[in-house]
Amino acid sequence: MHGFFFHRWGVRVVSYLVLARKWRPQSFADLVGQEHVARTLANAIDQDRVAHAYLFAGPRGVGKTTSARILSMCLNCEKGPTAKPCGKCEVCVDIQSGRSLDVIEIDGASNRGIDEIRDLRESVRYMASSGKRKVYIIDEVHMLTTEAFNALLKTLEEPPAHVVFVFATTRATKVPATILSRTIRFEFRRITTEDIVKRLQTVLNGEGMKADRKALHLVARAADGGMRDALSLLEQVRSYGGDKLEAAQVEEALGLVDEELLFAVSNAARDADIPGVMDAIQALVDNGGDPGDFLLALEEHFRHLLVGRVSKDPGRLIESTNETIERYKEEAKAFDPDDLVRMLSLLGEGGRDLRNSPRPRLVLEMLLLRLVRMESTVSIGKLLHQLERAGASSPASAGASSPASAGASSDTNFSPEKPGAPAASPAPKAGRARGAKDAAGPVAKPVKKTKPKPGPEETVSDAPQAERLLATPAEPKREIATPVPQPEPAAPAPKGRAKAPAGQAKKDAIDGRWPDFLGHLSTDNPMIASLLHGSIAHERSGDIVEILFPRDQMFQKDQVFDPANVSILEKVFESFFARKVNFKGKIGEHVGDANHLRKEKLKQDPRIDRILDMLD
């Protein structure tokens, strides 16, 4: 929109109206993303329940002052009071252009003293000149001094009938409680990316412009929930690229980080590709990018990967195009959720170092090198579970070669009574790809053993270091004539008492192996496994397993017992324990204490000490 006026020297000057002003909403129907505010105010006007003072709180650029102006038009329109002002009468036009004497806008940042408030108290006595009510709009009201707030209290408590106050602020917590209690407060929300994109498309159609959807998404995300900021950024991009906008033009005009550069870093982290991550940093520098902005974008990027990995519906949590969301879902499959959490933690810590460093590029390089060299996460419970499964599938654990192994339990691998059994190789460690690296860790070299001539043949173990540490060291050489002592066979239990110990053993199997089950569950469904962290399980009568949660995990309990999650949990449980059960959830009074005792018991387990020594 262009207007013309003449300078005092006779030169004609063209006045251009920017998009943020040209497309400013003029009615509650045009207000974007604040339907709860628009509906409440419209109903109050229609029902003649307009209050004397309102407080509009929320981020910048979401429509606080605009809503105050619309409210002024609703109250003073020649056809009103009405929730739908005509926008054409003299009063409405004056309010829209800012010329109305009955709508007074005050900047609280520059008119913050007690003298200005005293002048306001004097002016409220006078009736409206052309409209029906006088509306005082005080923007950034939290900037007023304490004395000014105190001077305003009496007027707010008993205002004249023809006056309405509207306070707007981005920091409602700084407004005194005595003021808050005298106003009706509305919380303005950040506008969603999708709503901003729809509004930008409307503006483009009205301006005769074209843009691809990805370009609009980039503008909307850069606006950070503010419609005014989005229109201002669109104005900037329009000046750069003309009336046909593409994503590359938006990135160049606004200085945004190239999305392909972010995926290059995450791919380098996945493949342990050090040259790849160094090339990405060099590309950033060549394009004039800022390391701090790049790190913030990288944090958001890895957050999207985590969402794509664990969420059932990433589209709700990632504000981008459908193509980009699908790409995040595919790329995230190569990462373990625990690894992504550790990466995000590392990037967050590095941000503080980057801000305080005089050499941000060097800090960024060191940070990303640590990211690339980060090893995959393996929990203690998962490692024990893998070793237990490997021991159960090993021929030596079946006990066919030695009479002493007959009737041994499934975790014979860890038994100190079997020094002669060879250690089995554990399953490969779950985690993200690391190129040529072996996911199971370093493999120990074989050790030759001298077998006694009369004794049985001993086999040489080539098990990995982790299992060698868990295995009990071999006993020293015995005399040839000394036989290995055999345990006395246990007396058979009476027939009448045979079922009770079996039932008890079944209960103990579930209660004691619950951590192992959670480790197994984390490989199939990491989200449900994380929700069950801190829980314990007890088997009740009738194949009912009761899951107890700590008192502060009510949310986790509700999520786990969502019907879809319960179905998944039952299937994984059946595959692990080879039996069907029904689950019930309960908040336990002493679950936290039980978990603490269980952790203390684990600390005393020699197997845990050996694993920790190996990891160190």
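That was protein one. Protein two is written in the same sequence-then-structure order:
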Amino acid sequence: MQTRQLLSVVAWIRARPLIADALLGVLLAVVSLIALVFQSRDEHMPAPGPLAVAFVLLINLPLAWRRAYPLGVNLAIGAAAAAYGATALPDLVTPVPLAGVVAIYSIAAWCGRRVSMVVGVLTAISIVVITVLPATDSDFLDFTFGALLLGSAWVLGDSGRIRRVRTADLEARAIWLARERDFEARRAVTAERARIARELHDVVAHHVSMMVVQAEAGPVAAEHDVRGALRAFDTIAETGRRALVEMRRLLSVLREETDGPEPALVPQPGVAELPGLVEQVRQAGLPATLDIEGEPVPLYAGVDLSAYRIVQEALTNAVKHAGKVPVRVHLRYGRQELRIEVRDDGHAAGPERGGGDDGGPNGGNGLIGMRERAHLFGGELTAGPDPEGGFTVMARLPLGSTRG
């Protein structure tokens, strides 16, 4: 209990340095006066008079501002001590006033090293002057003791200043690192949101386009081919289920609950799933073919997903804008890159094909997203009309890319 109370008192004093330093000055003044009283009794001299008390107060009380104005306090104490030594008043018990020791410590602790060294030299000179004054009884031993006392105080103060500077540097670095972590976390969140937005755009645009095509063809098929109409509705249901699965996978990343069970991880689609994607487009009534040239090689996960999404978006554009015309998907594995070409025989590019880069209301977000995916891994993508008609999307993805 006593230890806790003592810690509370120490914490209270540290939180109020001005009060603590004022109490220190008063304490040293009282100690100095008591020492003078006992010294006068031992030497059969009169007790310290009002002038001696005034000088003692002038020497010690300025310590209340030793942290805020260390240089001014040091000069004030030095001047008061020099004036006291020039009088015929009894000598102080110590060759150097205790307040002077605290003042030297303070100036070394709270001022720069250059300033504190200059003050230290001036203080040493003043000690020599005070020692040789005829009004004092100081000798070489007193001078040596005072110099050692002040030198030790300066060394302790300078060490405290160095520790405080290092601590401040460490705290500043810790704050900087914390801000950097926050910035990196925010940047990662922004990048993840952009990635999820691209994924959602690709998933929704593709699957909804497939469902719209099937839904539009269903009533027509029902008049002539009931089984075909039923297959169309089955395809719509299957497409919707696939869209829900992918959307749940993406939206699970945005969940804020941390105490619930983790969502089941679903593999990201890649080039291996392109045959199924082309078959899905074919079931929607678009004559689509897939041709793979070269020996397939394992791809980085990001490159694999980007290749799939680029083909998916290109097929989605063909479904929405080209009509029921042949679409050819061609993949060619080279030694250093994967080339993707998606070409349809539909209408030439126009605002409805999303051929612009402005991402305006007429389209363009899909092509911008495809270009971003290619550029993310050091590749490139071009899209535009063919001279003989139709629309072609061509992409190049480096096989050894580790960017992103």
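Residues 323 and 346 are 6 Å apart (CA to CA). Keep this in mind for the problem set.
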